[in-house]
Amino acid sequence: MRIYNTMSREKEEFIPMTPGQASIYVCGPTVYNFIHVGNARPLCVFDTLRRYLTYTGINVLYVSNVTDIDDRLIAAANEQETTVKRLATRYEKEYLADADGLNVLRPTVMPRATEHMDEIIAMIGEIIDGGYGYVAANGDVYFRALKFEDYGKLSHLVLDELESSRELSTSLEGGLKEDGADFAVWKAAKPGEPAWESPWGTGRPGWHIECSAMAKKHLGATFDIHAGGQDLIFPHHENEIAQSECANHQTFARYWMHNGFLNIDDRKMSKSLGNFSTVRQVAEQIGYEPIRYFMLSAHYRSPLNFTMDILEQCKTSLERLYTCRENLAFAIDNAGDTGENLLAERAAEARRLFGERMDDDLNTADALAVLFDFVRDINTLAADSCKRVLLQTAETFDALCEVLGLLYNRKDTKVPNKVLKLVEERTEARTAKNWARADEIRDALDALGYTVEDTPAGPKVGRK
Length: 464
Ligand code: AMP
Ligand code: ZN
Prior knowledge:
Layout: E1 2-5, E2 10-13, E3 21-26, H1 37-55, E4 59-64, H2 71-79, H3 84-101, H4 117-129, E5 133-135, E6 141-143, H5 159-164, E7 183-188, E8 203-205, H6 207-219, E9 223-229, H7 233-248, E10 253-259, E11 262-264, E12 267-268, H8 279-286, H9 289-296, E13 304-305, H10 308-334, H11 342-359, H12 364-381, H13 387-404, H14 417-431, H15 435-447, E14 450-455, E15 458-463
Parallel strand pairs: 3-4, 3-9, 9-10, 11-13
Antiparallel strand pairs: 1-2, 5-6, 6-7, 7-8, 11-12, 14-15
Residues 27, 29-30, 38-39, 41-42, 228-229, 231-232, 259, 261-262, 268-270 line the site of adenosine monophosphate.
């Protein structure tokens, strides 16, 4: 697979650090409100990357954090007269409900900043010891950005540009900072704010340090892919690199992937501009699945313009996929042992082309086009095909849809929640290498009339 690496600004062959394994870190949301449609873009896109790598036989360790302490959370909690903890807990739940609705697989690990204070404090200590950090008069700790020689290597801003860039903070924070480019890794506690003990007094972490510390804890000092929206390239990811590479003395992430903006009237959808619709609002109108489809209908690096009309078109396209799958099921039920074989060839070709498109920097738009050519073939050839060929065709069709995370609302595959819960529990048990518990759950599923098969794309539930 070739991936466009923001660092080199080129498509590069993706070669995981450990053959057969891929470690991915995706910056997650700050849970102070419902997520908006723009936030759903990285969610759906990088979930599809994960699914595709899994489909190709790679074991993916997928870490995506939740920012549960920062300025926006503190401000929102004050406004709503609640605590940061309560607010974060509530919106983390809402975020996960939306992610589930979008058929986004739960991360292998979903670390929360507030649960990694030891790691964060340890990393700040290393940064200070290396001479890259200093404690300001008020107890804030700042990172000496320009002391890190490679500062700017991801955003490709040369330092002169960087210094004159509007984006680079030049504020000296009332004399607390040595240089305008320096950024906070620790913020001294203000009255009424949540705070943690540290060697520099009570306070809380800056935003960037949490990702550096949590990526290290869960993926190691060097890992394969770091991803997020384009707006994170600078300063967030640039600062993560500076912190991690100064503390760990080794390359942080090997590949950097950034999705383009989801726009509304050609402007980035964002909370601060107020031009946003929440995923929940849109899903209530049209359902979650058209949103996911929409995110995959363009290449992830291109800008994508949001309108309800386009979502309606996505819904119609999805209906074509559902109808095709129903036709296929009908044909399977009615097929005999003899018939045409042509569809088998078309299925193989669809699989090959689909892989080719996805291998080209996750080109989901072209992969969808391949899927729709396949739909046309199925619709014209299914009735004359033999059962064996139809079953093979269905397997291919389902596998491709599963990579895209689509067609998850099929009625005939509705599995009761109770069964899904057990399957989830079994996956957890397996992750924890608790084989005895995993076997016990398999027996319980068996008693309920369900089978579970471990496929590269995750556990597959079937009726006995
Ligand atoms: P935030 O909660 O603002 O940190 O955003 C969470 C994720 O959504 C980050 O990866 C952002 O880059 C991404 N994001 C935010 N707004 C947009 C947008 N309009 N289009 C695409 N991605 C976005
Ligand atoms: Zn991050």
